[in-house]
Amino acid sequence: xxxxxxxxxxxxxxxxxxxxxxxxxxxxxxxxxxxxxxxxxxxxxxxxxxxxxxxxxxxxxxxxxxxxxxxxxxxxxxxxxxxxxxxxxxxxxxxxxxxxxxxxxxxxxxxxxxxxxxxxxxxxxxxxxxxxxxxxxxxxxxxxxxxxxxxxxxxxxxxxxxxxxxxxxxxxxxxxxxxxxxxxxxxxxxxxxxxxxxxxxxxxxxxxxxxxxxxxxxxxxxxxxxxxxxxxxxxxxxxxxxxxxxxxxxxxxxxxxxxxxxxxxxxxxxxxxxxxxxxxxxxxxxxxxxxxxxxxxxxxxxxxxxxxxxxxxxxxxxxxxxxxxxxxxxxxxxxxxxxxxxxxxxxxxxxxxxxxxxxxxxxxxxxxxxxxxxxxxxxxxxxxxxxxxxxxxxxxxxxxxxxxxxxxxxxxxxxxxxxxxxxxxxxxxxxxxxxxxxxxxxxxxxxxxxxxxxxxxxxxxxxxxxxxxxxxxxxxxxxxxxxxxxxxxxxxxxxxxxxxxxxxxxxxxxxxxxxxxxxxxxxxxxxxxxxxxxxxxxxxxxxxxxxxxxxxxxxxxxxxxxxxxxxxxxxxxxxxxxxxxxxxxxxxxxxxxxxxxxxxxxxxxxxxxxxxxxxxxxxxxxxxxxxxxxxxxxxxxxx
Length: 639
Prior knowledge:
mainly beta; about 40% strand
């Protein structure tokens, strides 16, 4: 690593420029003096330049594909310093890929206000393996601190391959200038489609008789940020996607969904795998299957056997990583190993079961108009019996056989079927997110508000709670109880596992809160363990749909007994509030008893998906809903 002055870089030739004539190796001092992003004030960093360039070089021996990348990033906050650690993934299949021509600079202002430049050393980059088919080049920019500007460039070179990488204009930080420049031989016929709401300029300047050129540019691009109840960032990122239609008039990569299905059905580690007969080798399971006559119970018996016996190794896949017997003998497998085994056993028991390719909501929506297996991140099992739809994932230890997994609910799956290949909507609104909280509390004359709380989570709420608990059971109390109710003290927290697949998951605790006396008054609330203490919808605008994922029912019920020296001064009024489309219903009931209060508050959200244009109404309604749940009870000391 060496530090040099800016004047020594003036001879460095850049390969990109835009209206402001920005060149690699030359920095505008104003960018170093800048304290914030003009169009996104809270940004921790800003991409001043994010540019990519694709070129092909063809001779009689080979086709060389080059993807050149240039990034310039301004660091506004120390929270963005990790952006100086660069990882460039690339394929190692065929050993025909490499990352070349790595160079970079870090710019800072000295104490005297002069520009200092630190060059990335030639030996700073190194390779490390990610998987059998992927590696990455890693390097860290030098001398980076708050206020720095870093820039680097590299080239990914691949031999004998024709492809166009999709280009994403949005990133985790805002982008001042983004450019994607493609030059391809005119014999390559390709199409593109721009997604998102950004204004993207498109031109074809500079193409010669032997090449076709396309240039895409955008400026002042806000960062892509997660919003509450959002599916996948990939569904909303502004980008341009490409598809190669043909080369020299010969169709290329033009597989249809039907052709993809046919290839999978003939694949040794997919379609041919599910036709194996192994049930007779599992006498315990075979005996259980023979003992039941109801077809639904047959499905349940086999599903629960696989769910219990085969451990998921955490690996997502489409194709199996081993054969059926290896999965059984090892008692462990990938997502596809487990669910293809389940498919095979169900078929052998006479159930019409088939693999179904899925893309979880977090992975992104399927683009039906662009066939490709890479749009999926897993395979589940699809079956229909007596008019009932079953979508099963036996890799999940907690979900019942007759409940669509929450991560794919409201999505579409590709049914891999010899004669009935189709996209199937995965939706069943009978199952809900059910959460009931029962409170038995006492309020003393000294303002001690204490009692017991029991929370019953059913269906999708149960799955969420089990996932949170087993992710780190030691942190469950602090992360999901104490951090939400910071003014309370909780003791004797007990997590009760469901006694059966359709049983609720229970959490019980003793709680205590010392209320502050204000002029002889005490104020308390009954909103405990609902997860609805704050309104998540506070932004003025929203760019993504609101995906709750399922319908919801949330109930708070119980009693509060109070000392004879206290008198209820203000009790929340009984009410029933309903939206015009009946998608949200709120009911509240408080009743004064001889020595206490009984209450019941219920919230029903009967719509799992709200579109962006419905956000203003949902935001206003949700605010009112949370205010109702949080409304205080006021007790006065007797004179």
